[in-house]
Design a protein that fits this description.
single chain; 505 residues; 25 strands; alpha/beta; 25% strand; GMP Synthetase, Chain A, domain 3; seven-stranded mixed sheet
């Protein structure tokens, strides 16, 4: 799109003027053009202003993925106010903790959802009222009420219950995320979003979508592989971003080879490297590369692989720093250390939490990610795990991600996750939860031998649980907390290292 812009309101106005007829959103039940998005958000912004929302105020969204969600999000930004979207699957304790941190002036909610009320009873705008607002005569738009340094969105760290952290981004951050998009965004893309909108995968890409005039295909919720494939075919999707568990289920879907999926030009695997068989299978089925992106709520763009990278880079690393970003490892060259990042995509801080904001950054302005890894000879970042996931077995540090990335190359292993469990004498042991390749039988002895041939012997798992599917959370990420509880319950004080306890459970 032509022109230079520094705030979301001016950017959306230009998109509506230049390509207003183009689809901005296509959902299971409705669709909306860029012109409609712009007009509706003007009308909703005026209604929000009448209800007391102004620059710097927080507005909470408790709504499902929809065109209405996008309208309200843009309307809030036009006022210079701040959006915080709450996943509709959150419980009362989680919603209360978030609301007490961000203190929303108003909540926009879907009255048909069985979601708990927010504490303090902030005023509400019901989704059912939006249709009437859209039908009003156009008003003078609320322009000029925001500047590039104004916060736009607060997101919440996943897995938080009673002590949430809310990274927030301003207009400059959102523009930087778009600048860093690389091959994931080209003009006129049709991008399928199969995850909840409150996630950074949608919220942080508002600028990117408008700038590239991208049509967002709203994924059917709750997610299923058959509905995802149907939307890819019917809506001629060009870009798909999904987590590894979603990709695994997609390529294993019966009859997928018979579908016309030729519209897809690139796929993205978020949160973790993709196993080699998955990279190859995606290319075979979709005819497109699968790239890996490393990001976090505190920085929606950090590093990534490129479509032209060889498979071993895709499944072993998370690539090189993206445009505007720096990556550093606090260790000697080639050694494992804390990953830190710096750049235009990094959050401005945690909302209403100066103490934790100060703790997150070092004296040089680097954000400490909590991830462990190292940079290889080509500058690719190799993640070995979270500092909180590392365990100490007999005095030796073990990084589960390093062992997992090896085990998924075993011909009998479809997926694996390793967590620690307490053990007598040696402190902690590794418990492997393995999903075998259909028709295969996996034993602890053969997995331990496989690890010993490639890594130090103390890194081999001590206990094996064979399961049909790894548990996942609302974002379809592996639920390591649930696995830790299972491991702790199954490993008793009598369990010795290298035990076959749990095999077949």
């Amino acid at each position: 799109m032509s022109g230079e812009f520094d705030t979301v309101d001016h950017l959306l106005a230009a998109a509506a003027a230049q390509q207003g007829e183009r689809d901005a959103y296509v959902g299971p039940d409705d669709r909306m053009s860029f012109a409609e998005w712009h007009l509706r958000s003007d009308l909703v912004a005026e209604e929000l202003r009448r209800r007391g929302v102004g620059r710097g105020d927080v507005v909470a969204l408790v709504m499902p993925n929809s065109c209405d969600f996008a309208v309200v999000f843009a309307a809030i930004a036009k006022l210079g106010a701040v959006t915080t979207a709450l996943n509709t699957r959150l419980g009362p304790q989680e919603m209360e903790a978030i609301a007490q941190t961000c203190l929303p002036r108003l909540v926009v909610r879907d009255g048909t959802l069985a979601t708990p009320p927010l504490p303090g009873e902030p005023r509400s705008l019901l989704r059912s009222e939006l249709a009437g607002i859209y039908a009003r005569v156009a008003v003078d738009p609320p322009r000029g009420q925001c500047n590039p340094a104004d916060p736009v969105v607060i997101m919440w760290t996943s897995g938080t219950t009673g002590n949430p952290k809310g990274p927030y981004l301003d207009h400059r951050n959102l523009k930087a995320v778009s600048d860093a998009a690389g091959p994931m965004s080209t003009p006129g893309d049709r991008r399928l979003v199969p995850t909840p909108f409150p996630h950074a995968g949608y919220m942080a890409r508002l600028w990117d979508q408008i700038h590239h005039l991208t049509t967002v295909i709203i994924g059917v919720m709750p997610w299923s592989v058959d509905s995802m494939l149907r939307q890819i075919v019917e809506e001629r999707v060009t870009v798909i971003g999904a987590v590894p568990t979603q990709w695994e289920k997609l390529v294993q879907f019966p009859g997928i080879d018979e579908l016309d999926l030729g519209s897809v030009r690139v796929g993205l695997s978020a949160t973790a490297p993709a196993r080699p068989e998955l990279v190859e299978r995606v290319k075979e089925v979709l005819g497109c590369p699968l790239v890996v992106r490393y990001a976090m709520t505190e920085s929606p763009s950090i590093a990534g692989t490129r479509p032209e990278d060889p498979p071993e880079v895709q499944f072993r690393t998370v690539g090189r720093p993206q445009v505007g970003m720096e990556v550093s490892v606090l260790a000697d060259e080639g050694e494992v250390g804390m990953v830190r990042i710096r750049g235009a995509c990094v959050m401005r801080g945690y909302w209403n939490d100066p103490a934790r904001t100060a703790k997150a950054f070092d004296s040089e302005g680097w954000l400490l990610t909590g991830d462990l890894g190292y940079l290889d000879a080509d500058g690719n970042l190799v993640l070995t795990g979270r500092s909180s996931d590392m365990y100490i077995r007999g005095g030796y540090n073990v990084y589960p991600a390093e062992v997992e990335s090896l085990l998924v190359t075993h011909p009998k292993v479809a997926n694996v996750s390793i967590v620690a469990a307490p053990a007598p004498t040696i402190g902690e042991i590794g418990v492997a939860f393995v999903v075998p390749v259909p028709g295969e039988t996996v034993t602890l002895d053969e997995l331990r031998e496989f690890v010993r041939r490639n890594l130090a012997d103390y890194k081999a798992p001590d206990v094996l649980h064979v399961i049909q599917e790894l548990p996942t959370n609302a974002m379809h990420k592996i639920n390591r907390s649930a696995l830790r509880e299972l491991a702790k319950a199954s490993v008793t004080t009598e369990t010795a290292p290298a035990s076959a306890a749990g095999v077949g459970r």
